[in-house]
Write a structure and sequence with these properties.
Elements lengths: L2 E5 L2 E4 L4 E8 L7 E7 L6 E7 L5 E3 L7 E6 L4 E6 L8 E8 L13 E6 L1
Parallel strand pairs: 2-10
Antiparallel strand pairs: 1-3, 3-8, 4-5, 4-9, 5-6, 7-8, 9-10
Length: 119
């Protein structure tokens, strides 16, 4: 079983930056991909970005392209989300998740970390 622990959230002014981390624990951790999602109050959880574990191929939601960067450190079983030029609409709880194989959905959700962007 994989356990995910997110960190790095906080309160920041619009235009500021934050870096989220998600550390995975578990034996023989080697997923197909890891991803970041977010859920704002009263809204459904939405996809933010993902990265394949082996090749490092990245994908982003249109709303964060050019502002957010996802990366991973395979040696530390950790995925990062660098968030620049933050906007108030980025305010949400951010979750990381694992995609164990190409054909499975994301799962093994972490507990989330709150990001609040003030205007």
């Amino acid at each position: 079983q994989v356990q995910l622990v997110e960190s790095g959230g906080g309160l920041v002014q619009a235009g500021g930056s934050l870096r989220l981390s998600c550390a995975a624990s578990g034996r023989s951790f080697s997923p197909y991909a890891m991803g970041w999602f977010r859920q704002a109050p009263g809204k459904e959880r939405e996809y933010v970005a993902s990265i394949t574990w082996s090749s490092g191929t990245t994908n982003y939601a249109d709303s964060v392209k050019g502002r957010f960067t996802i990366s991973r450190d395979n040696t530390k079983n950790t995925v990062y989300l660098q968030m620049n030029n933050l906007k108030p609409e980025d305010t949400a709880v951010y979750y990381c998740a694992v995609k164990r194989t190409m054909f499975r959905n994301f799962g093994d959700w972490g507990q989330g970390t709150q990001v609040t962007v003030s205007s």
